[in-house]
């Protein structure tokens, strides 16, 4: 039976229309079909959102699963009498360490310990510690301890484990070191410091300029062609791909102004240009939300227009501006492409000393490690990602907290 | 004395000026007589401004001229007569001497540079001291001038506010300057590129395999059509096939069906997807998604599947775009007048019928605008494609094959060791220009669509 037939007047009814017979089998079937479609549609919606959340959880689980191991380090007990070494040159220390490893673990003992094992020996020697020293294991042994490695490494690990010569400890080098060629020696502090310096430059430039710009556009700007031009530029800048800002930084800051390559100063300038529109837009919305009665009241008791804004409107809009700034900064912190353009992808083995020293950023460091062939870098990359995500999550949580605490409805 | 110390010194002088002017202005009040026009603070700020601003402006200008002056005085020295005349060598020698003098270079390669270094140091010190002295004189002169003008009827507030307004205006002009900077730098480098490679070949050429040295009259492999196709394929087709259904359905579920408690929790979780840095998505795509997709493709009999498949990059990019599409759809569905929805429900339509036949058609322009914005974001996205998509410029519609994108090639060409003038580096700027223009057009069209639609209901 077609839909039309259901509504058509019954032949015997004459002028009067029969009310729809909801209990008829055809109508019931129709209603069931419609309710079925309703349930399916709702289920689809639920599935869509669950799928999105599932991908997020899967991503986080992958990173944590791979990365948690990056925070630990397998160590090997090395029988060296550090107290008797004294102050030796690095080369001599390396030889002592390697000889001890060969003496303890056979001919390829040297390959079981990390290239940086002599650093642990040096520290022990400086403290005149007696007895055995725990030194970091080589990448292969580390992998054998954590997941799977070559048969030789697995066998060597099993042998040492049986003898009680290995242990797993927290990897402090990862939090205090810088980039290195050996995955057992890498750390993120250099990249974190580079990111901090860059963000400092970004904040110092983007925040005042963004706020001033927002105040001008929202409170003082006359409605004319120039103001429109400024607004259009800001809205466009907010949508320009980040890599274009990198090209701008490369062409203007590096090639035209001759600023130092790879420096946090240049990175900060580039990211500031990118973050500023975000702050301006957030700032304008926050200023717009302050009710006109506040301005009228202040003007009414004789405040000048500048006083109205700086004494009354700005303090009330500040929580909103702060929220927008934190969100903009968290975006800048995760940004990689512009930094690549201005040469921040170099191998830098020491933390930067200032804003004009070559540096790398945490996301760039992640990118560089992800390109490494050595399998030992997989867990380090994921561990660095965990650190980055925790920082970003904390920043966003702070923004949400600020918004909830200070948000006011008028 | 370095620049930062001088900066602090001038700021300190400004503070001193502020305090002393305040004290003087406070005395006007205590002395009685005419009621001062401005509060003491404004007098303080006025004098501080006169102390700081001229000195700062001078220091900025000075720091721009000094390197030239220093080099000039070094070259004027008789010792410099032995400098090579070849301009490049000469510059390199001078740069080395400068690095030695600044201590950023530990030892000299050339003995001549080592000889010139002390000269550099002396000249630099000389000009630094002169700059410091001049800055201090300017600070004191400005401060003294402003201090002498303070009177009870002096309109300090008006002047301070005028400077404040100028500062605000200048801050808002920076957006225009940035835009001009972007356009100018992209245009300038692109024009140099188009002087070597014809724009027609670049825009419509079908082969992308850029050569370092250009051969006139031959195809030099600067045809960007494969790149453009790769970008559209990953960013506008595969990513949108993932993002539009998921984003739209999530928005519908959250706005129309979910209980408020669910909505309050799910919305921020969805937003987290947008907050994850793109480098993390790129790593996820390269490490997990791409091998899985390859294995799946091989399992179903596509043996040519690449580990750098377009599908992997596109799917992950689509996931990244979901919250973006979802929030745009959310906004435009919320903007549909409640009366339309209520009318439909009152006629006996089920909720899904109302959504599909009333809300979505009414919200369509907004959704389309949102999708266009999402596309513009997807094609400008860099890290996911750099890490997960390939470098081979294939003109293929096979999602398991490797394609490359505009952003991937920009990164590729600018992070090598090429000279800055090589056609490859300049081509990166030309690609950047195309990317900029396309995203700009997409944004303009999207905003037009959204705006037009809003006017219809307000």
What does this structure look like?
The complex is a heterodimer of chains A (410) and B (458). Chain A has 410 residues and is mainly α. Chain A contains 16 helices and three strands. A three-stranded antiparallel sheet of chain A has the order 2-1-3. The longest helix of chain A has 43 residues. The radius of gyration of chain A is 32 Å and the shape is flat. With 458 residues, chain B is mainly α. Chain B contains 15 helices and no strands. In chain B, helix 5 packs across helix 15, helix 10 packs across helix 12 and helix 12 runs antiparallel to helix 15. The mean pLDDT of chain B is 86. Classes of the chains: A mainly alpha (410), B mainly alpha (458).
Q: Please identify the structural class of chain B as seen in this structure.
A: mainly alpha
Tally of distinct domains of chain A: 3
Low-confidence stretches of chain B: none
- State the assembly state of the protein chains: heterodimer
- From the N-terminal CA to the C-terminal CA of chain B, the straight-line distance is 63 Å
Main beta-sheet strand count, sense and barrel state of chain A: 3 strands, antiparallel
CATH superfamily of the largest domain in chain A: MetI-like
CATH topology term of the largest domain in chain A: MetI-like fold
One letter per element, helices H and strands E, the order of chain B comes to: HHHHHHHHHHHHHHH
What is the third-level CATH name, the topology of the largest domain in chain B?
MetI-like fold
End-to-end Cα distance of chain A, whole Å, is 58 Å
CATH architecture identity of the largest domain in chain A: Orthogonal Bundle
């Amino acid at each position: 039976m077609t839909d039309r037939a259901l509504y058509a007047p019954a032949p015997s009814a004459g002028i009067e229309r029969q009310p729809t017979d909801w209990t008829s089998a055809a109508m019931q079937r129709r209603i069931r079909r419609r309710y079925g479609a309703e349930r399916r549609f709702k289920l689809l919606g639920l599935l869509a959102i669950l799928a999105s959340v599932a991908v997020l959880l899967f991503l986080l689980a992958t990173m944590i699963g791979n990365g948690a191991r990056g925070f630990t380090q397998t160590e090997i007990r090395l029988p060296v009498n550090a107290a008797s070494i004294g102050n030796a040159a690095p080369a001599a220390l390396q030889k002592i360490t390697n000889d001890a490893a060969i003496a303890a673990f056979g001919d390829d003992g040297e390959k079981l310990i990390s290239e940086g094992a002599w650093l642990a020996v040096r520290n022990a020697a400086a403290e005149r510690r007696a007895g055995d020293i725990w030194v970091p294991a080589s990448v292969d042994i580390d992998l054998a301890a954590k997941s799977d490695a070559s048969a030789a490494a697995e066998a060597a690990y099993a042998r040492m484990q049986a003898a009680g010569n290995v242990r797993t400890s927290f990897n402090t080098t990862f939090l205090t070191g810088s980039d290195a060629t050996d995955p057992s020696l890498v750390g993120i502090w250099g990249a974190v410091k580079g990111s901090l310096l860059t963000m400092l430059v970004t904040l110092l430039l983007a925040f005042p300029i963004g706020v001033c710009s927002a105040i001008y556009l929202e409170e003082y700007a006359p409605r004319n062609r120039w103001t429109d031009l400024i607004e259009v530029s800001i809205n466009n800048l907010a949508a320009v791909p980040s890599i274009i800002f990198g090209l701008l930084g490369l062409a203007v800051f590096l090639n035209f102004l001759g600023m130092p390559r790879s420096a946090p100063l240049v990175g900060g300038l580039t990211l500031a240009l990118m973050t500023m529109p975000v702050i301006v837009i957030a700032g304008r919305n926050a200023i717009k939300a302050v009710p006109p009665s506040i301005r009228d009241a202040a003007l009414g008791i004789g405040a000048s227009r500048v006083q109205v804004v700086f004494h009354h409107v700005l303090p009330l809009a500040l929580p909103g501006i702060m929220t927008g700034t934190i969100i903009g900064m968290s975006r800048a912190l995760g940004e990689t492409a512009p930094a690549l353009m201005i040469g921040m992808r170099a191998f830098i083995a020491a933390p930067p000393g200032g804003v004009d020293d070559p540096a790398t950023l945490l996301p760039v460091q992640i990118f560089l490690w992800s390109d490494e062939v050595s399998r030992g870098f997989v867990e380090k990359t994921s561990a660095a990602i965990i650190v980055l995500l925790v920082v970003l999550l904390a920043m966003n949580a702070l923004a949400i907290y600020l918004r909830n605490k200070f948000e006011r409805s008028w | 004395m370095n620049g930062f110390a001088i900066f602090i010194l001038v700021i300190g002088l400004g503070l001193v000026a502020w305090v002393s002017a305040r004290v003087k202005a406070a005395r006007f009040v205590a002395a009685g007589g005419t009621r001062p026009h401005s509060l003491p603070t404004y007098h303080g700020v006025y004098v501080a401004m006169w102390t700081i601003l001229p000195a700062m402006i001078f220091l900025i200008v000075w720091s721009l001229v000094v390197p030239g002056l220093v080099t000039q005085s070094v070259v004027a020295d008789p010792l410099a007569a032995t400098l090579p005349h070849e301009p490049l060598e000469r510059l390199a020698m001078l740069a080395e001497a400068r690095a030695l003098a600044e201590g950023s270079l530990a030892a000299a390669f050339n003995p001549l540079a080592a000889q010139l270094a002390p000269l550099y140091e002396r000249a630099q010190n000389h000009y630094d001291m002169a700059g410091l002295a001049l800055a201090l004189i300017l600070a004191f002169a400005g401060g003294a001038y402003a201090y002498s003008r303070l009177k009870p009827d002096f309109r300090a507030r008006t002047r301070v506010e005028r400077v404040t307004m100028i500062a605000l205006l200048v801050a808002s002009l920076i957006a225009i300057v940035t835009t001009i900077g972007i356009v100018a730098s992209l245009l300038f480098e692109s024009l140099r590129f188009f002087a070597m490679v014809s724009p027609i070949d670049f825009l419509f050429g079908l082969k992308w395999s850029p050569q370092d040295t250009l051969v006139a009259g031959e195809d030099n492999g600067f045809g960007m059509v494969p790149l453009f196709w790769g970008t559209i394929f990953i960013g506008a087709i595969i990513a949108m096939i993932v993002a539009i259904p998921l984003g739209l359905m999530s928005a519908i579920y959250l706005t129309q069906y979910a209980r408020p408690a669910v909505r309050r929790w799910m919305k921020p979780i969805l937003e987290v997807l947008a907050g994850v840095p793109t480098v993390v998505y790129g790593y996820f795509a390269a490490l997990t998604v791409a091998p899985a997709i390859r294995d799946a493709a091989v399992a179903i009999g596509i043996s040519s599947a690449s580990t750098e498949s377009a599908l992997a990059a596109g799917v992950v990019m689509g996931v990244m775009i979901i919250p973006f599409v979802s929030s745009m759809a959310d906004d435009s569905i919320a903007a549909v007048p409640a009366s339309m929805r209520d009318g439909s429900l009152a006629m006996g339509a089920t909720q899904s019928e109302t959504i599909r036949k009333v809300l979505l058609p009414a919200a369509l322009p907004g959704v389309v605008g949102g999708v266009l914005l999402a596309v513009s974001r997807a094609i400008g996205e860099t890290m996911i494609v750099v890490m997960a998509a390939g470098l081979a410029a294939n003109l293929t519609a096979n999602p398991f094959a490797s394609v490359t994108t505009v952003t991937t090639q920009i990164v590729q060409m600018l992070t090598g060791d090429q000279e800055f003038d090589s056609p490859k580096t300049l081509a990166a700027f030309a690609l950047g220009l195309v990317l900029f223009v396309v995203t700009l057009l997409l944004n303009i069209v999207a905003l037009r669509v959204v705006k037009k639609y809003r006017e219809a209901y307000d």
